[in-house]
From TrEMBL:
Signal sequence, renumbered to the chain: 1-34
GO molecular function, one term: zinc ion binding
A Pfam family this chain is assigned to: Peptidase_M1
Region annotation (Disordered) ranges: 32-54
GO biological process: peptide catabolic process
Positions with biased composition (Low complexity): 32-42
InterPro entries on file: Peptidase_M1_aminopeptidases, Peptidase_M1_dom, Peptidase_M4/M1_CTD_sf, TAT_signal
An annotated GO cellular component: membrane
This protein's name: Metallopeptidase
Organism name: Streptomyces colonosanans
Peptidase M1 membrane alanine aminopeptidase domain span: 295-462
């Protein structure tokens, strides 16, 4: 690993902490009516499907938020001109434990399926095939529903716990995607993300003890439940996933000058200075990136802070942050609201499209010196590429940091090649063209080339963007 770029003299320690946290982390949107709309045309025979999903979820927690049980309904449309005969649910919460053991079953279970016939779990119990009762033709909608049970694992992870606090990231089953390459049923990978989902709507009702605060994706409100309990209602439109946390958090809220409601939740033993810095930088970042890439469309953003969480993890409208005295990786994680959240990508096949772009935004936010930070000698072999899939990185874990280090350096070099103004226009156009959609490396290269008369072929080759 090369030395990181020079840090600004005002905050070297906390920026270094943020970068190092990212390298060990498990991973890794005021009104939607004004948001840009995607413009790219898609061949209907190859269209990603099932699309326009809607998830309606009702769950009830036990006394400390470890166990959640309830019912989930998923409705969806077939966007392809080929009949849809089946769908797959991805149970990403089973990724670390796979199929479990007789004494310790998988943490996510699905039962009593209606609207289709469930098959056996596959891909280490992260994929559930549901055969539809009749082929679903293009443009038609249907729904499946099922009971869901979630048991938060006893480990500090995106789906895990830290003391009295529970994290439920990648916990809800979501629809897999079928496109021109078939069903995307990739395995879970611990160093990064495997998820590839289409933007959809969530309406989630969480019934929990009143002692627990529950930050969640979307615009949330609470109402009284049965004695001693509270119901948190959340509505989220055009998001790719839904996450929440639960615990005796301290809380604060502010509205940024750009109109985004930022709610902060932190464990009492989180360093106070780290909480202050994270709240300050998180609010500034969401407004800045709204200006640079397109207005944040989700209205609310939740920052969830604990002292021991490993690095940071992003979800639409909510980020989990390990927070030290020096701060956290909040700017990188807020940047993910655009790069993966709004501008989607297949995170298994092209992780650089979200991680490198989010880290480039982080570099620019802090004004890091990226001159000469690209090192052509740091690559492990000539087959390695910045655009390699998680299949490659999972088998070369010691080099996965290149997505976070070489990636933003490559984008900084592209900025110097095109000029700062052109690069700014490129990113805003690229975001606009794929707003709520799915982008690929080829899409980005095509947009970049359209912005200049220079032939960028040698640039892509030099920077291993294939």
């Amino acid at each position: 690993m090369p030395s990181p770029p020079a840090w600004p003299s005002t905050s070297p320690r906390r920026l270094l902490v943020a970068l190092l946290a990212l390298l060990v982390a498990a991973g890794t949107g005021a009104g939607a009516d004004a948001a840009p709309k995607p413009t790219a045309a898609v061949n209907s025979a190859q269209a990603a499907t099932p699309d326009h999903p809607r998830y309606d979820v009702t769950l009830r927690a036990d006394a400390d938020g470890t166990h959640w049980k309830g019912r989930q309904r998923v409705s969806f449309r077939n966007a392809s001109n080929q009949p849809l005969r089946e769908v797959y649910l991805r149970l990403w919460g089973n990724g670390m434990d796979a199929c479990g053991t007789p004494g310790s079953p998988s943490p996510v279970t699905v039962s009593r399926v209606r609207g289709g016939t469930a098959g056996p779990l596959s891909v280490d119990c992260t994929a559930l095939r549901i055969t539809l009762p009749a082929p679903l033709e293009q443009g038609r909608r249907t729904a499946v529903s099922f009971d869901v049970s979630l048991t938060v694992p006893e480990r500090n992870d995106r789906f895990g716990s830290e003391g009295a606090f529970r994290f439920l990231g990648n916990a809800l089953p979501v629809l897999a995607v079928h496109d021109a390459t078939g069903w995307h049923l990739d395995p879970y990978v611990a160093p990064g993300e495997s998820s590839y989902t289409l933007a959809g709507d969530f309406q989630v009702t969480l019934d929990h003890p009143s002692a627990l605060k529950v930050p969640a994706t979307g615009r949330t409100r609470t109402s009284p439940g049965t004695p001693g309990r509270t119901v948190t209602h959340s509505v989220a439109h055009r998001v790719r996933d839904f996450a929440w946390a639960a615990g005796p958090f301290r809380t604060a809220a502010q509205t940024t000058p750009g109109g985004v409601r930022v709610r902060s939740y932190w464990a009492p033993d989180t360093p106070a200075e780290g909480v202050r810095i994270t709240r300050q930088d998180g609010a500034a970042a969401v407004d800045r990136f709204s200006t640079e890439y397109g207005r944040y469309p989700y209205g609310e953003l939740d920052l969830v802070m604990t002292p021991q969480f490993g690095g940071g993890m992003e979800y639409p409208g909510l980020v989990l942050l390990g927070t030290e005295e020096e701060g956290s990786a909040v700017v990188h994680e807020v940047a993910h609201q655009w790069w993966y959240g709004i501008v989607g990508n297949d995170q298994y096949r092209a992780p650089w499209l979200d991680e490198s772009f989010a880290q480039y935004a982080n570099y620019r936010f802090y004004g890091l010196d990226t001159n000469d930070c690209w090192d052509p000698d740091e690559w492990p072999d000539r087959n390695a590429a910045l655009t390699s899939s998680m299949d490659y990185w999972a088998n070369h874990r010691g080099t996965y940091h290149l997505v976070y280090s070489a990636g933003p350096c490559a984008l900084a070099d592209l900025e110097r090649t095109l000029g700062a103004d052109t690069m700014a226009r490129l990113l805003k156009r690229y975001a606009r063209d794929h707003w709520y959609g799915i982008s690929t490396t080829a899409d980005f290269k095509k947009t970049a080339q359209s912005m200049t008369d220079k032939d960028l072929t040698s640039f892509w080759k030099t920077h291993r963007i294939r």
